[in-house]
Each structure stands twice: as structure tokens, then as C-alpha cells.
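Sequence, C-alpha cells reproduced for absentees:
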Amino acid sequence: MAIAVLTVLITSPERVLFHGRAQSVVCPGEQGTFEVQALHRPIVSRLLAGVITVDGRVLNIRRGVLRVAEDVVTAVVEPRE
């Protein structure tokens, strides 16, 4: 049996920060940190300053917006360098 995975695209206005497949994405949302896994319900969330973690890979951000739909996670963020 295949393991369900997410397709993840995280970009800034200047470049792609991450594009690939993952089992988990953890994000700093307005109402606290939340995790997205395969089969997650559709959601749109504003992201606050903090860390996005994609299967252990860490991306520091200032803010952004995230959308989840049909096992696809798309985020546009302002990275913190």
C-alpha cells in the first residue's frame, strides 16, 4: 500500500524556496502552529513570523499565506534571511 504524500510548493516573490513531495508540513498560523498531512481538509491561512518545517527541513519566514487543497500545499512567503 502506497503512503499518501503532499505536493508542496513554497515560494517568495523572488524565487522558489521548496518544491517537492512531503509527508508533513508544520506552519506558524494566526491561531498557533498547525500541521498539514495528506488528506487534510482544504484551508487558507495567513502565516506569521516563525518556521515552516517540511519533513524536517526548516524555512524561516517573516509572514505569508498558505493554501491546502487536494493534497497540494502552496505557500507564498517573505523569507527571513
